[in-house]
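Propose amino acids for all 198 sites.
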């Protein structure tokens, strides 16, 4: 299945996501108003939760299932490990460090070889960062007016506790792996686990 071409705000509303989570500016009260719908089945709730998380991280079904299978094999609570794996993606870390306004922009920065991990260029958005990794904007890209403008525009967004940001050096360090309390959206990860464990 390909990417959804549905307008972003419409998709956010259908999945119950605040567009601020996706990195999109101010939201009017009209967008936050919830519509009353009939009660959803258990399957519909599980599917909606999975679709929501897939949409937030911009991942297609096959890759998302692989993340779930990897999380199921690791020790710990499967749902929490799944969220940890998704948060540890390089494109997400670039977004969390405020080097990009959205995860889509972050993915593009990584793909276009503007980001380094421990001094080496990494152009794979799904690259898994580890504790102690230093993520930075490539030296030659730091002088780019487009990159400077983009980072300056997002400088007021604080980095989460599990990341250490050095705004002047355009770099950040992974201090720990993300936990559920570090994410800025509501998720019932147990529903995703139930969906896949059938």
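Proposal:
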């Amino acid at each position: 299945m390909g990417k959804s071409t549905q307008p972003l705000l419409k998709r956010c509303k259908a999945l119950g996501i605040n567009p601020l989570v996706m990195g999109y500016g101010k939201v009017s009260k009209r967008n936050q108003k919830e519509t009353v719908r009939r009660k959803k089945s258990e399957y519909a709730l599980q599917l909606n939760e999975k679709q929501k998380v897939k949409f937030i991280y911009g991942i297609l079904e096959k890759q998302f299932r692989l993340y779930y299978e990897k999380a199921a094999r690791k020790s710990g609570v499967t749902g929490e490990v799944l969220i940890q794996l998704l948060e540890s993606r390089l494109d997400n870390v670039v977004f969390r460090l405020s080097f990009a306004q959205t995860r889509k922009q972050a993915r593009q920065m990584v793909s276009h070889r503007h980001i380094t991990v421990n001094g080496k260029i990494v152009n794979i958005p799904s690259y898994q960062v580890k504790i102690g990794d230093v993520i930075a904007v490539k030296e030659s890209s730091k002088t780019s007016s487009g990159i400077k403008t983009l980072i300056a525009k997002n400088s007021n967004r604080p980095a989460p506790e599990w990341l250490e940001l050095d705004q002047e050096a355009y770099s950040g360090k992974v201090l720990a792996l993300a936990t559920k309390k570090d994410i800025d959206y509501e998720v019932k990860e147990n529903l995703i686990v139930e969906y896949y464990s059938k």
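The longest strand covers residues 134-137. The beta strands are 115-117, 120-121, 134-137, 163-166, 171-174.
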